[in-house]
Amino acid sequence: MSSEFRKDLLSDKWVIILNDDNNFIPDKDSKFDYKSLPVLDANCPFCPGNENKTKFSIYELKKGNNWQVRVIPNNKPYLKVETNLKRHTKDIFAYIDGTGANEVIIETPIHNIDFDEMEVKDISFILQAYKERFLDLKKDERMEHIIIIKSRGIKAGSFIPHLHSQLVAFPVIPPMIDEELNEAENYYKIKNNCVYCDMIKSEIKLDERVILSNEHFICILPYASRVSFEMMILPREHKSHFYDINEKEVMSLASILKEAIYKLNKATGYSAYNMILHTSPIKLSKLEYYHWHIEILPKLKNFSGFEQATGLFINPTTPEEAANYLKELK
Ligand SMILES: [Zn+2]
Ligand SMILES: [Zn+2]
Questions:
Q1: b/e for 10-24, b at 16 or more Cβ within 10 A?
Q2: For residue 244, how far is its CA from the centre of ligand 2 (angstroms)?
Q3: Cα(210)–Cα(219) distance, rounded to whole angstroms?
Q4: Which 8-state DSSP code applies to residue 31?
Q5: What pLDDT is stored for residue 21 in this prediction?
Q6: Which ligand is closest in space to the CA of residue 187?
Q7: What value does the mean pLDDT of the chain take?
Q8: Which among 288, 283, 277 is positioned nearest to 187, based on CA atoms?
């Protein structure tokens, strides 16, 4: 087994990549068996007919008389929209009240489905809902940043199998975004280009890690992937803010997401995963150096304490090998 250290251009972090023969085999408990569930579950708070189990709708996208996408407040919010944004200090320590918005986007009325089996049009409704929520929350003066996280399966942190995402709006910029912004700005100062745009050009030229592409988007396995089958979806055209996505791009993104999740589910045998939307802070105007994107992180292996102790991920699969495997997967 050989190994190498790879530096991630986007976070300036090192990753250890192994070339392990047993690399594709996920841990047994990583499997997320939602397909065996019913289409409609009377006990699921997100299923149609159970709308009274959740609070009011913040936003709904209808298909005929029924909702297709429904946005509700999180019933256990860790950040509250009703709070005033006050800064306090206690000796050398500072804090601000837990202000923010914590919403749940119920992405389909069907209980046991994921993107791979959905109509592209229905996925585009979800993306449209994301955009609408961004545009609405952007008006709130207290909010600085919005993140969307989808968690699939217990190992990814979700106990409800019904397809949904969490939207969190923060009064501060989360550290990981701050880090990406700083790295991208540093790169821009030296090269006078967006690091993400340069990375897209280079990935297309090398053609070792591109697994999907269409008119507006590209899906790659990052050079310094932290886990096996980690994916990144980027708009080909430079855009710093997700909410600037147009109608054509929404359809294009829906289509590439469907294919990416199809390949991921098939390759991992339906393992748990997280999908994260990273975009520029909402109050900043268009940035030349930052490029919005989606990261997909499968949860195939239990982490040892190594990552926490060192901040170094050990990935048992080379992204090139994983990309070859995914490209051929029909
Ligand atoms: Zn359900
Ligand atoms: Zn760019």
A1: bbebebbbbebeebb
A2: 14
A3: 6
A4: B
A5: 63
A6: 2
A7: 91
A8: 288
Mention every residue, 6+ apart, whose C-beta is less than 8 A from residue 216: 235, 236, 237, 248, 249, 252, 253
| Helix orientation angle between 195-206 and 175-191, rounded to the nearest 10 degrees | 80
Distance, in Å, from the CA atom of 173 to the CA atom of 156, rounded to the nearest integer, reads 23
Question: What is residue 216's predicted lDDT score, i.e. its pLDDT?
Answer: 98
Closest-approaching ligand to the CA atom of 54: 1
> So what's the pLDDT on residue 22?
60
What would the pLDDT profile of 191-238 be if each residue is shown by its tens digit? 999 999 999 999 999 999 999 999 999 999 999 999 999 999 999 999
CA 44–ligand 1 middle distance (angstroms): 4
Give the start-end residues of each E strand in the chain.
2-7, 14-19, 59-63, 66-73, 87-90, 93-96, 101-106, 145-152, 164-170, 210-213, 217-220, 231-235, 273-278, 293-298, 313-315
| Residue with the two structure tokens 């909402």 | 282
Q: How far, in Å, is the centroid of ligand 2 from the Cα of 9?
A: 13
Q: Where are the alpha helices (DSSP H) in 113-235?
A: 120-137, 175-191, 195-206
pLDDT of amino acid 33: 86
Closest C-alpha among 135, 126, 150, 166 to residue 251: 126
Q: Residue 89: is its pLDDT beyond 90?
A: no
CATH class of 2-328: alpha beta
CA–centroid distance, 68 to ligand 2, in Å, is 32
C-alpha of residue 276 to centroid of ligand 1, in Å: 22
What is the mean predicted confidence (pLDDT) over 83-108?
A: 84
Residue count (the chain): 330
Question: pLDDT tens across 110-152, in order?
Answer: 999 999 999 999 999 999 999 999 999 999 988 999 999 999 9
- Tell me the residues surrounding ligand 1 (ion) with CB < 5 Å: 41, 44, 46-47, 111, 162
